Amino acid sequence: MTARVVLAYSGGLDTTVAIPYLAKMTGGEVVAVSLDLGQGGEDMESVRQRALDAGAVESVVIDAKDEFATDYCMPTIRANGLYQGEYPLVSAISRPLIVKHLVEAAKEFNGTHVSHGCTGKGNDQVRFETGFTDLAPELDIIAPARDYAWTRDKAIAFAEENDIPIEQSKKSPFSIDQNVFGRAIETGFLEDLWNAPTKDLYAYTEDPAIGNAPDEVIISFEGGTPVAIDGRKVTPLEAIEEMNRRAGAQGIGRLDMVEDRLVGIKSREIYEAPGAIALITAHQAMEAVTIERELARYKRTIEVEWASQVYDGLWYSPLKRSLDAFIDESQQHVTGDVRMVLHAGKATVNGRRSNHSLYDFNLATYDTGDTFDQTMAKGFVQLHGLSSKIANKRDREAQ
Amino acid sequence: MTARVVLAYSGGLDTTVAIPYLAKMTGGEVVAVSLDLGQGGEDMESVRQRALDAGAVESVVIDAKDEFATDYCMPTIRANGLYQGEYPLVSAISRPLIVKHLVEAAKEFNGTHVSHGCTGKGNDQVRFETGFTDLAPELDIIAPARDYAWTRDKAIAFAEENDIPIEQSKKSPFSIDQNVFGRAIETGFLEDLWNAPTKDLYAYTEDPAIGNAPDEVIISFEGGTPVAIDGRKVTPLEAIEEMNRRAGAQGIGRLDMVEDRLVGIKSREIYEAPGAIALITAHQAMEAVTIERELARYKRTIEVEWASQVYDGLWYSPLKRSLDAFIDESQQHVTGDVRMVLHAGKATVNGRRSNHSLYDFNLATYDTGDTFDQTMAKGFVQLHGLSSKIANKRDREAQ
Amino acid sequence: MTARVVLAYSGGLDTTVAIPYLAKMTGGEVVAVSLDLGQGGEDMESVRQRALDAGAVESVVIDAKDEFATDYCMPTIRANGLYQGEYPLVSAISRPLIVKHLVEAAKEFNGTHVSHGCTGKGNDQVRFETGFTDLAPELDIIAPARDYAWTRDKAIAFAEENDIPIEQSKKSPFSIDQNVFGRAIETGFLEDLWNAPTKDLYAYTEDPAIGNAPDEVIISFEGGTPVAIDGRKVTPLEAIEEMNRRAGAQGIGRLDMVEDRLVGIKSREIYEAPGAIALITAHQAMEAVTIERELARYKRTIEVEWASQVYDGLWYSPLKRSLDAFIDESQQHVTGDVRMVLHAGKATVNGRRSNHSLYDFNLATYDTGDTFDQTMAKGFVQLHGLSSKIANKRDREAQ
Amino acid sequence: MTARVVLAYSGGLDTTVAIPYLAKMTGGEVVAVSLDLGQGGEDMESVRQRALDAGAVESVVIDAKDEFATDYCMPTIRANGLYQGEYPLVSAISRPLIVKHLVEAAKEFNGTHVSHGCTGKGNDQVRFETGFTDLAPELDIIAPARDYAWTRDKAIAFAEENDIPIEQSKKSPFSIDQNVFGRAIETGFLEDLWNAPTKDLYAYTEDPAIGNAPDEVIISFEGGTPVAIDGRKVTPLEAIEEMNRRAGAQGIGRLDMVEDRLVGIKSREIYEAPGAIALITAHQAMEAVTIERELARYKRTIEVEWASQVYDGLWYSPLKRSLDAFIDESQQHVTGDVRMVLHAGKATVNGRRSNHSLYDFNLATYDTGDTFDQTMAKGFVQLHGLSSKIANKRDREAQ
Predict the structure, then answer these.
(1) Is the predicted pLDDT of residue B36 greater than 80, yes or no?
(2) D165-201, pLDDT tens digit by residue?
(3) ipTM above 0.85?
(4) For residue A78, what are the domain limits?
(5) CA of D45 to nearest chain C CA: how many angstroms apart?
(6) Which of D263, D292, D390 sits opposite B383 (nearest CB)?
(7) For residue B169, what pLDDT is reported?
(8) What percent of chain B lies above the pLDDT cut of 70?
(9) The total number of structural domains that make up chain B
(10) Residue A365: how many CB atoms within 10 A of its CB?
(11) Per-position DSSP letters for A331-356, written without gaps between them
(12) Do the chains contact at A330 and C322, CB–CB below 8 Å?
């Protein structure tokens, strides 16, 4: 059977020249699949045409922006999905969606192989390939950058040898991945951990120091999902886009991290994710009002595990699904409004209201109307501390 | 035996009038104990004298600032101790230290009772009393505000009836607790969750919007503890004080939370903890460079539990001690420098360096010098995803 | 309004005499509610009549055996719900069901109060009362044993004073609670932890040492629930009853524990739960074949929390519901057969088969047919250990 | 530099013929290192000589029984280290010790390589190799069974071709690994999960059904470690050996598991570990008396993680060390006596006593002398359930 390689196609030089290269290496044909995840930049139709020009037998562009926002970004917000407590999993959640569409394309176009452009030292190879083996283990996987040491230099040389016309733009010193949920920048001078990021790195956010006037915003949630901004209904995609714009204008969502990669090494990463960070901040505040204490406490450890699973490329794993079930159940009443001030790099919550609130003014107040029966507290305190009291007594006596 | 009540004495009207009141209720004597935890305000000698004037048979003032910083604040930094992911446990860590000194005073002055001024609906009663029963279960506990419904009004009435001269300052509409690690403000109009905090609430921090010039600072850590700032050696207390000043000038460390109290209710809390937040931010960045991935991941869940234990008044509990042992072991190599920019409400890390770094440029770089063997990755990816692959296959076939 | 006390009525002397006593104390009426949870003993109609004879205005008996087995015991099996790794929560899961029916009876009979016979130092008071406040906080709670120090002696005295005819059986030296899921025995000479339990304590199990012939049984599961035994379809109740009989005949399910009560003290408990232990053992073996590794690992910590929540009387809590959602999702494929030998106190699994199995002979075998690609392992091992390798190297160099 | 391969040498045919094979493949020399871990069988001196006869330039036998018992088995007991809740990590804890001695031998004999006989689909390759890279990353690793597909057939063929005299014993159909802590059996007809194990599999345990008379034993612990049996002082090694004998005579410690291997597949494993299971059972009972409730609860999840780390070959990892620190702290007061009856496959605890006991008869008893203040319970119950009560009320109202 002739090989048919379904390639995750970005439109860049490397994956463009990879089209004839993969055809040659496999003796088969290449189907290019490109997803619009809100990464911006070039017109997607040009991307599609370029793949055909490079020799792809089919080239497909899929507008997956709404699907991405609804089925991948919103669960991340509900999970307060922050790897290492900071990184909102921007690239990590995009890979399983790309995988899903590549697998569908492989079915539609009788693909025998799937292929991606990731190297062998990053996380994304893992996310692509566990996705492929989870959803379609019958497809063979080719990772030219890793398996054939395919590089930009090799791509240029191959293009020249094979008379493939290429447009050689000046290569950015950085490796960049972006979609509507955020933007990741690595390599270059950032590989020295002591070097501070420079202003030219950023594209989604303004410098927090420029002094834009504070911007007050009200985010409304239903069941853990943002559904309105300042009273106007929004789709998940619109929520992210609007908050990207408004929080981005205030320099919110810039991250400078040393990150633990799944492959066992640490790396320096710069992110900007203004909408993601603003929305998660609001979501956490909404949860604080509407989720019961013990559930809230336990959910914190569930969130750590959820973020690890997703970061580690296990979006389609059984554990991820059970964690999702826990989180979905927890979100039933995460409904109401959060008011925030966006300013100078920070989203600050300063008000919340909800018909599902667990805050009880009459129990909390020290003013008239107090319904909390303080005489109950004495007994509570005594039994709350009893096992520790007995243990401390034993410790003293046993010495 | 005549009762001798050792009272946690603040110098305020309520606990001052409580001195003769407790003496009357118990038919005994009162020993006043006041701790200087860096809360500022009044001269401690005046406080000491006021207790004597009110009838205390002994009045002791203890400068516990360094002890507090070293033995209570530093462990909180090493644990990244943030209740609900935000609150650096300002009041929660002060209570066990006050307890410790009250118990010592009870031994010195033959105390039979200990007493505190907390109400029956807050956390601090629990922290005081579990501390007392942990360290000295033989002492009886009196909580006049809870057990005798002792209030400001009652105090004033009692003072008038008993010809006790009092100075009736205008009562703040807020309930405030403060020490060198931070400041807590509650009640008043804040009890409506939709009301934003007003500027006059704050004392440790400037308004982040006033536009002070950014302040760059280098914090040096040894074994998880800050030991130098901008190259100058500092004690733990000095580290907190300097960062209070510098981060406070930038409006860093303001928190507006809905908090889950131990007694089962939610309450609105405003905090300012500029030094605490700045130091914990730096500490987390130092850990990211020097702690191995799996340890770092697991420590996150340990931190959640540590903060809960401390918040819940279990500083002296056996579980807290075992969590401490875990954390202490983890901090051995958390040594090096972190550079941060303090500005407009936010501490932003932009550089880190360490002789104990786990970051390996040669493994991480995409440039020449790369020592990472990418051919290893293929096998890793396959086995990493194998159990999920088998499960997904089963799921499809079993439907 | 006249008080109407809905009483959890056992038929014993204490709760019988409590009927007129509660009527007198509240100036109202008493409605007796008794549940058949398979505890055996007396005919339930006699129990019902006795309450009326003692002055209850209504007396209701509810056959809740199937409901208990299906909605309370089966979730415990799916959760492998073993407090302290041993106790299958026999009494803990019965209380929320009794509560549910008392609350329903209160609605039907216009109850204003609910009442139970538990003391103030056990767990069951907590389970009753958190259940009541969760489901019907408008009902007042009376716990005569705790709140009025109601005891057997007091009951006898009260009966004599009020000419209430009572049948004074010889009181067991033990406190016993039992239902179809098991039997709990405490107090008496067992309060000395060094005393071994005596043979007369047991009623659900034979002495394991008597040497009954081994009994081989095949338990079939669907979605984590036992549905057939030796090929015959069974209801949840029948599954427990049959395994009580067969595992009981082999002395399986006897437990001798020092237990951590919710109220902060340790107590000695003897349990017998032959069906529960046999079914959980089989369930764990079924899970080992059908649940993916990472899910199985994480479920272990979920199980610890689930058992704690249920033991602590939080059956109806939000956290319990989210844990249930996790567990339900995990059980989808826990389907197949487990073969066990029941003998001499132990249920030993020795075979399992399933159409949902994740065991793959061709991957596991060392014989011909092996499909596991061993060359993948080398890369896996290297990256699996890489972060620890780097850390150990750092540790040596940093010393 | 000439290669010097330090080989983990078992004395069996495969590793014996591997000696000249490794010499040939590397063009170097082989140093054989054999550890006595109490696996019994052949005299270790014969093993040593056989390696020399096969061409090893050095052959070393190390009696590591006491070190193994003290530094590897005892921590496992203190951690109640049971993978999947059952398997006491018999092989998993032996590999890091073998690694340690191989690394020492490499230093002593100027080794350049280390080598082991494990295949590429098991756990032990991982445990060996993460151990090697943790302790001595400068050594190259050769795994002939995996990297050169070295098998018994290949060994026999190589021996014949090279005139190496071999004694071809009838190969067991099973793959067996054993040491003083237990014995593991896999492959053969056991690869069909429905096949029950046969009696001939077992060597450390009698058939539990043979009806030996019950054997009562008292195990004494100090700080979590068994130090005496029936009043006689024992070393860790003696404790294991004596309990192997006595619990083995009763058929205790037989396990039949479907196990989740680290490499992602499930496998059937039969274990016998009479001493390990008996000692862990006693240890758990000792902990129940001497460890405070919250610490005990949390330690359960720590134990799950500890067992996973050790199973996964991460004995020398930073996380393992921090978990150890937690456990060590928890064991301080795990001191006292546990009485057990060993009989027919089961170790049943029926008594415990300790000067470090947290059990307080006066708090627990329902008899005279009761010091538990039941009036405290009412307040406790109310606040314990308050947050869930508020949440349930909200849930009803918000529907």
Answers:
(1) yes
(2) 777 666 677 788 999 999 999 888 999 999 999 999 9
(3) yes
(4) 4-161
(5) 31
(6) D263
(7) 66
(8) 98
(9) 3
(10) 18
(11) TTT--EEEEEEEETTEEEEEEEE-TT
(12) yes
